[in-house]
Amino acid sequence: MLDVYFKECLFFTANRLSRVITKMAEDAFKVSGLSPTSAFLLMALYEKDGISQKELGQVLHLQPSTVTRVIEKLAASGLLYNRSEGRLSLIYATDKGKALEASIHECWNNLRSRYNAILGEEGDQLSLQLYQVSDQLEKIE
């Protein structure tokens, strides 16, 4: 009966999936020298250099304190910098950070290839479904 509780519990199953995919992502991004979260933050900068810290949090679905911590770590590594414009803090990639773009995209593609090799085309479909479900659940909170 206990396995039924676990299999039918979205909380338990989502956390299990999170642990498995986090390990896969950490392995995939290890060659870049970055955590997956740091790499995704830089990917956001590649799309919109000079993005606000608040917008980064929204794009990455992270709490402000987490965004601050990641930014501080990447700034200390010389991969990004922030510039204040009034009350707004804008984040920019440095040349050193921009130089990692190809490597980060390769890591991202390797991660997707790895889980798609296991799941087939369902991997990308599952990702889209989970994103939509997350949006639905966030709206009721």
UniProtKB/TrEMBL annotation:
It comes from the Bacteria. Residues 7-141 form the HTH marR-type domain. GO terms for molecular function: DNA binding; DNA-binding transcription factor activity. SUPFAM superfamilies: Winged helix' DNA-binding domain. Keywords: DNA-binding, Transcription, Transcription regulation. This is MarR family transcriptional regulator. It comes from Paenibacillus radicis (ex Gao et al. 2016).
